[in-house]
Design a protein that fits this description.
By secondary structure, the chain is α/β, with parallel strands linked by helices. Helix content is about 40%, strand content about 20%.
Length: about 450
């Protein structure tokens, strides 16, 4: 595997700064860039990677793919989730990577305070997020304090509506570009509002509101000079493959869901074994039972993943499952996305209606269906993001599913994600599929 030119550019950009923020759109490989930064800083001996719990396995998998042999031998790398940070309060690291950095947008949260505390002692901090701020520039504030704390020194007091949305006494910046008050007034459309009446002083009570946005071009220029880089798919489209396939690994909640029957054999031997398995009615029936058990257990993990994808800027997601009850469970919880869904019980007219809503309604973020009812015949190029909650043993069916988004009229590279439990047959299929799709196609059709 090789890095794309824009990823090399991102690595070189981050290396120019003590602290940096890579805010590329989802699907552009921020993880690979972060590991590239580790590889380039050959003097590093200790690295901490902070990520959501559900992404720890993915980070370990990406490290096994991208980390250089040299750094593997000399650098200690810890991967922890946010809630584990209090246990590390007495440890220090040379390089810290903060994944999904928008998780610390609330400066009063324990999570934000823990990240700020541990990054203070690091030589370098690299933050990663596809959504540096979701709604308001003020959500950048905690990230900016890590990115370039010296710029945001402050002095004096003023009553403001702070980043957490509460009325508080806040330090006033000593000069242009210093302190949250100055940042909020200049970049967050800061306005002074009346919040009540001060009967003792016989005058209105006022406070500053920083819920808006202003001078965004200036903010963008300032960020670039400070260690912030963001690229969209449209910016790097000529460098992207038509499809980017990615495996999303989850830790199974209990060992009985795992299956290492085929461990210790080569990929080619494994593919031959799976081909034989699918040809045996008895063996395939037993495996199908196991797959359904895994799919039901995966539902809460899939829900968390889909929500994180939407938070990271995915506008439309095509979600494939296999079992109708799994589809129904997902649909029940994803109602907040304006989701549409199809099962084998829907009529052709109902299915087409669901596709039409997904294609035409900007508030509809997700469509869910099985490969049997949604995998062929429909065009949904409004989406460039396909997620498989269940993996089909016949890759050809998954290729057909991918092509609901990858069709004539698609103007972006399509991100395809396979969500699986680690140490399962599904995971092994996906690992091979990601690197040997031509072999899979030849062996399994």
């Amino acid at each position: 595997m090789q890095l794309h030119p824009y990823q090399i550019e991102g690595i070189n950009f981050a290396l120019k700064f003590r602290n940096a923020l890579i805010a590329d759109e989802m699907g552009l490989g921020k993880t690979a860039q972060a590991i590239g930064v580790i590889n380039a800083r050959t003097e590093l001996r200790s690295v901490l990677i902070i990520c959501p719990l559900s992404l720890k396995l993915n980070w370990r998998a990406e490290l096994s793919t991208w980390l250089s042999d040299e750094m593997r031998d000399v650098c200690s790398i810890d991967v922890v989730h946010y809630e584990q940070l209090p246990k590390l309060r007495n440890k220090s690291y040379e390089q810290i990577i903060v994944d999904e950095a928008h998780y610390i947008k609330n400066p009063t949260s324990a999570r934000c305070k823990a990240v700020k505390a541990i990054t203070k002692t690091a030589k370098h901090t690299l933050m990663l997020t596809g959504t540096p701020f979701v709604n308001r520039p003020r959500e950048l504030w905690p990230l900016l304090q890590i990115l370039d704390a010296k710029t945001w020194d402050s002095a004096g007091k003023v009553r403001v509506k702070g980043p957490a949305g509460k009325w508080i006494s806040k330090s006033v910046g000593a000069g242009e570009g210093a302190g949250f008050f100055t940042f909020g007034k200049h970049f967050c459309g800061g306005v002074q509002e009346t919040i009540g009446w001060d009967s003792a002083k016989g005058r209105p009570k006022t406070a500053w509101n920083f819920d808006g946005a202003s001078n965004l071009d200036e903010l963008k220029d300032w960020l670039a000079k400070t260690g912030y880089i963001r690229r969209l798919k449209a910016d790097v489209l000529p460098q992207l493959p038509p499809k980017t396939r990615q495996m999303i690994l989850f830790q199974a909640p209990n060992a009985s869901l795992c299956d290492d029957t085929y461990s210790g054999i080569s990929d080619e031997q494994f593919l031959a074994a799976i081909a034989k398995l699918t040809a045996s009615k008895v063996a395939f029936t037993e495996w199908s039972r196991k797959r359904k058990e895994q799919a039901v257990a995966k539902v809460p993990f899939i829900l968390e993943h889909i929500q994180r994808c939407i938070e990271n800027g995915s506008e439309k997601i095509i979600l494939f499952a296999h079992h109708d009850d799994v589809i129904q469970s997902l649909a029940k919880e994803l109602v907040f996305t304006g989701m549409q869904f199809m099962t084998s019980k829907n009529t052709a007219a109902e299915r087409q209606g669901a596709v039409d809503v997904f294609n035409d309604d900007p508030n509809c973020k997700v469509i869910i269906g099985s490969l049997g009812v949604m995998g062929v015949g429909y065009t949904m190029v409004v989406s460039d993001h396909v997620v498989f909650a269940e993996v089909d043993p016949v890759p050809g069916r998954m290729w057909q599913g991918e092509d609901r988004a990858h069709r004539f009229g698609q103007r972006k590279g399509v991100l395809v994600q396979y969500a699986v439990f680690d140490n399962t047959i599904e995971a092994r299929i996906c690992k091979i599929y990601a690197k040997k799709s031509d072999v899979l196609k030849a062996v399994l059709g």
